[in-house]
Amino acid sequence: MSANVVERVKRHRDGLRAAGLRPVQIWVPDTRRPGFAEECRRQSRLLRDDPHEREILDWIEATADTEGWT
After folding, report:
1. 3 domain residue, yes or no
2. Is residue 36 within 8 Å of residue 29, measured between CB atoms?
3. pTM here?
4. pLDDT digit string (tens) for 6-63?
5. What is the domain count for the chain?
6. In a domain? residue 34
7. Which range marks the domain in which residue 45 is found?
């Protein structure tokens, strides 16, 4: 990476920090990984007939503010 790019990125990050922001690193599951979709299906099947899951989903639906969504 050239020094020019490094300096530009540094200025950008410094500006974000000056605006009161801070960087946060977050690790999420890799959806491209082999077996990811099957693991999602497996976990979903485990919850299929769970009464607590249904109760939670009903609550989320009842309390979600989706006004303006299209």
Report:
1. no
2. yes
3. 0.54
4. 999 999 999 999 999 999 999 999 999 999 999 999 999 999 999 999 999 999 999 9
5. 1
6. yes
7. 25-63
Using an 8 Å Cβ cutoff, are 47 and 53 in contact? yes
Query: Would you call 41 helix, strand, or coil by DSSP?
Result: helix
Q: Which two tokens stand for residue 16?
A: 């974000």
Residue 46 within any structural domain of the chain = yes
Contacts of residue 13, Cβ cutoff 8 Å, sequence gap at least 6 = 23
Distance CA(54)–CA(48), nearest Å, equals 8
- Joined together, the tokens standing for residue 11 give 């200025």
Reduce the DSSP state of residue 37 to 3 states and report it: helix
Q: Is residue 4 part of a domain?
A: no
